[in-house]
Amino acid sequence: MGTLKTQDAGRIDTLIGRMTLTEKLGQLTMMSASHTVTGPVITGHSVSDIRSGRIGNLLNLIGAAAAREMQRVAVEESRLGIPLLIGLDVIHGHRTLFPPPLAEAALFDAQAWALTAREAAREAAADGITMTFAPMLDVSRDPRWGRTVEGPGESAWVGARLAQAKVRGFQGADLAARDSIAAVAKHFCGYGAVTAGREYASVDVSDRALLEVHLPPFAAAVDAGVAAVMPAFTDLAGIPMTAHSGMLRGRLRRQLGFEGVVVSDYNAVAELIQHGVAADLIEAAALALEAGVDIDMVSGAYLEGLPAALERGLVGLAQIDESVRRVLTLKARLGLFEDPYGRGAAAESAAVVAERRRLARDIAARSIVLLTNGSGALPLPAGIGRLALLGPLADAPAEMRGPWWSAADPDAQVSVLAGIRAALPQAQIRHASGCGIADPDDSGIAGALQLCDGTEAVVLCLGEAATMSGEAASRAHPGLPGRQQELAEAVLRRAGARAIPVIAVLFSGRPLIVPWLAERASALLAAWFPGCEAGHAVADVLTGRTSPSGRTPITWPRAVGQIPLFFGQRSGGRPADLAGPFASRYIDESTGPLFPFGHGLTYGRFTLSHPRVTPQSARASDTVEVRVDVENHGPRRAQETVFLFTRRMKSRVAPPTLELHGVGKIALDAGASGTLTLPLALEELRAPGLDLEPALEPGAIEILVGPSADRASLLTCRLELVD
Ligand code: GLC
């Protein structure tokens, strides 16, 4: 997390020597604030608590003036003048919204991930924010879980790269810079594996799953110098993460070498009582401090409980001082002692914001995944004259934000209707929502159907409201809500009878279970929640101004019953493709996904050939190069994404059937061909920095390259690993 200047170290020692217990506990407390007409207020507390030093950190305060006022009170009216950490969930933008992380993961582009984080940091810092509770790094293979939208998808390898990019983007080259903010890697650890995809439910994964799937993104975040980590609300095999000394002081600090601040989730310290591991706030506070939680977010347990815990000998003053030192060290590294008002001092220019929106449009267009285009319905014909734009998400600007919209104005989002009209000014665009997003009213379906008559194409915008994914938004039936399926089926019948193409665009924070729609729509796209420039981004892809290049970072199941479904699952002794009835299959559903990890079509038509690896035998410490020839047989220039997987043919521990180790992209004009080279550092074939099995065992390693994790699409070659 970077080094501390000498004078700061001295300052911190002096401060700790002068602080009362209340002032120390205040530095370990973060309370929620908001900005009202009369000025900033702190939920359940008064601004005098900042003056007295009882509150040393805030979250949820939006607006540079409000942030500055609270910072001023802390610096100029409290006894020791210690500045505040001011935190906010800047997950995918602050006032200018980019697509949420799951959608951004579809770019498979670490530079883009870092760039949007950098822009979000600049915008948030201009509002006086000093810390974001991001990146969220919970690997999830369960579309029922609402928070899948906030994370990197199903791959730990993608999660690790997203972690590094986001931490570097948020924190910049210098954490003390006025446009840098502290990143918080969350939610440590395993939250994405909640039982049955139900929010906040218990997590019980094996050590191996922890090491192979859930820890690598956090190891990468620590490696990138993340300033803070937030434990998950959940328990891990019965021990709540907020009280999990083995994971916080053990794995995170001792094994991964994390030196930063651990900040609890919202009220999580007090919720140790509900977990059943603490009798009261005193015990809850003691357990959390003992486990290594430095800041208590909102619960007040540290303020109210630690004095008694000290008296009872449940904790020692040294532990409190250790946490206070980490918090003051972070404030010093943020430059807050020298420059407490720097963040928020200068408003951003309109030109800077306009440029950021242009970036948001590009990122959103690149996040869109073209799932099917069977009849070549897309791109829309250049001279299209009549278009029916239907569905409850067609003119829903506020929903385009997705969850965790920070300070983004609901009216500042471009709807699909506005984007399509701007892109096709000469066309007659007829619009009807047809039904609501989730309400039972189907009275609008008939009117919508009439707009299908006489049109050249139908664009059907379906999916979820922004609040139907994110926190506290698990769904047992993650399909189209409300009466949308009835609307879609009626439109498909009506348009189908007139040979009119129906292009379905899905807006959601998760894969939706829609095999019937994939089967019948002329084309199907996953637009996720595209953010502030949604309408322009969707129009760019539908009209061909941008050739779709997004690839799904999470498997789309055919049925809820298949969940969890993800690439590379271990074979087992009777794999699904074994002949005969005694194989790992269902008797009432296929085992394969609707769309595999990495799936995404383009407006080109690519073929891969001649996979080869050089050298063909290597040691575990070597880096080899994998090459594959790529040709674009399609009618238009497009960008192909190629994934590099490996499979160890034998290992003491049954190896996953696919492990992701690289992604490459190549853009080719129609008819052009090229060669893609993908480096593979063999050391990577073990989990990064974790105590998995001993070094790689000599033997054959299969190299597989292709456009997705669909085994049938992969080309293979062999590498011999030698001692
Ligand atoms: C929420 C979330 C966490 C967020 C925090 C502050 O409950 O679990 O991700 O950062 O509270 O809003």
Question: Can you offer a commentary on this structure?
Answer:
The chain has 20 helices and 25 strands. Strands 1, 2, 3, 4, 5, 6, 7, 10 and 11 form a nine-stranded mixed beta sheet that branches. Strand 24 (699-706) and strand 25 (715-721) form a beta hairpin. Helix 15 crosses helix 20 (534-543) and helix 16 (416-423) packs across helix 20. Alpha-D-glucopyranose binds at residues 59, 89, 133, 186, 265-266, 471.
Give the topology, please:
Layout: H1 6-18, H2 21-27, E1 29-36, E2 39-42, H3 48-51, E3 57-59, H4 64-77, E4 85-88, H5 101-105, H6 110-125, E5 131-132, H7 156-171, E6 182-188, H8 207-214, H9 216-223, E7 228-231, E8 235-236, E9 239-240, H10 245-255, E10 261-262, H11 272-275, H12 281-291, E11 296-297, H13 301-311, H14 317-333, H15 350-367, E12 369-372, E13 386-390, H16 416-423, E14 428-432, H17 445-450, E15 457-463, H18 484-497, E16 502-507, H19 515-520, E17 523-526, H20 534-543, E18 606-614, E19 617-618, E20 623-632, E21 638-648, E22 659-668, E23 673-681, E24 699-706, E25 715-721
Parallel strand pairs: 1-3, 1-11, 3-4, 4-5, 5-6, 6-7, 7-10, 13-14, 13-15, 15-16, 16-17, 19-25
Antiparallel strand pairs: 1-2, 8-9, 12-17, 18-20, 20-23, 21-22, 21-24, 24-25
